[in-house]
Amino acid sequence: MDYILTTNALTKKYGHYKASNEVTIHVQRGDIYGLIGRNGAGKTTLMKMIGGLSRPTSGSFEIRGKNGENTEKMKAKVGILIENPGLYPNMTAIDNLKTKAIALGIKDDKYLQGLLEEVGLTNTGKKKAKQFSLGMKQRLGIAMALVNKPELLILDEPINGLDPQGIAEMRVILTHLCHDRNITILISSHILDELSKVATRYGIIHEGKLLEEASKEELFSRCTERLELKTNDIEKTMNILNGMGFSKLEVKDGTINIYERLNEGGAITIALAKENIQTNEIALKSEALEDYYFQLTGGKENA
Amino acid sequence: MLNLYKMHIYRSSKATSTLVIGILLGVFFFINSALAFFVFNDEILMSVAGITAESNYKASSVYPATLHTFHVSTSDAFNILITIFTVIFVNSDYSKGFIKNTYNLFEEKWKFTWAKWTSLITVVSGIFFVYSFLTLFSNAIILKHFSNSQWGDYFRVLLVTYICFVAFVTMTFLITSLFRSAAGGMVIGIIIASGLLQTVERLIDILIANLSGANAQDILMDVVGVNEANYFKISDYCLDNVYLSYNAEMSSGDTVRSILVALAYIGFGLGLAILVNRKRDLK
Q1: Is the complex ipTM higher than 0.90?
Q2: 20 to 30 Å CA-CA from B38: which of A11, A116, A207, B128?
């Protein structure tokens, strides 16, 4: 496997509290790796360690096969946008980019203009960053992260707080960067639905621990399909279903979930009608990524 | 590291705070020039200001070094503005989060502190010299007793006060780096800049003199500045006192002590700031 980033039991302790607890992830070149976890799960801590903003208490990580902690040149190939874009509010978009470019010894103004074009901020002119919308600030933050021509882009909650249009624009940018510029992206979010639209590989993190790491295909195959059935008499319905030989059943919130023989919805409806039971709703449902995540992390009550 | 230095210079050139501080310093320049005009064109006020016939200077002449000392000793507002500028300069990339854009790109974190300090010193040195020369130039025009002589004294006083000024900025740099808070840095910096600590230092001096059995009259004469007492004074080693009290009449021993004290503060302040920032995580 061509891994651009691997972590090995990466741990960060604050006193006795482990914000990141022996996390081991594998990011392949060309991945959009989605780090899923609720607030405080340890996503930002992990990203900060990889991004060189925080020192690991123990464990290590490798960027392009070399120890990331001690390799300045490797880190120079990492672009980060963590927590907020880190802009000077009284500067224009291009001045913010220039400030970072000067620190890196880059004098190519055309390149910087090109970055603004890539993130759709060419027409901002003399408008200062403080006058930007949240979406514009996030996009400028991504442009800032791209100044050093990174191979790996680390984006912490870049779609957080964006309106639907902003989210859609961000999706287009991320896909473009990954596919057209061959940049590997490590992105975190707690908006699973959105993450599922762009990520190709996932790491599910909870209370500092990595619970699962899987490709998109693997993860979605675990999101099982079921028949959801709502009737006016759940007890009788269960008896009838048992009589028909159904055993993988579950009653949840007034709904009967059937996990087998998913193509027998018609037969079930007829059998219920014969016993004068009214079918209010019957539908084939696929367990959403969100449900799977809740199941893995201990339920919605924890969210 | 040179690039980081250039970046800090660039960002300060674009910062609103630089413009605001520049305007305020301009206003303060006119106020201080007017103050000099009224003090040095008036025999009584000149006497109050310490430019008396008893000194090495003639009452009828105002020398460049005298003017510089006068401006340093009456420049609380200048020092406070420089403190505010320093705190904003040191803190802005942390408070705005910009530091995250560059912090991961350099393995040796001491470079960040060093580059920031050198760029800060470059900017404030520019302000110091432009302000000093402009003040001197305007005073030379408006003061009827200005004496175009004794330039050696002027450059000696300018050099010593400049080194003390760099030490003062470095200590503000350290305080801001330690607290990473604009408010904390400003409060402590302003207390030092305004000379409020000098009273405390004087009190400690008197306590030490009393404990060491010094003559009460000597202590009194020293406190009111008539005679210099021959006992250990902690204020001789406190930067604010060294900076605000240095003048052309001081002995070469005092000059050397002032320079060494200032250099010690610069070394301590910068060294500790580098150590503090080296292993810190970014919050």
Answers
A1: no
A2: B128
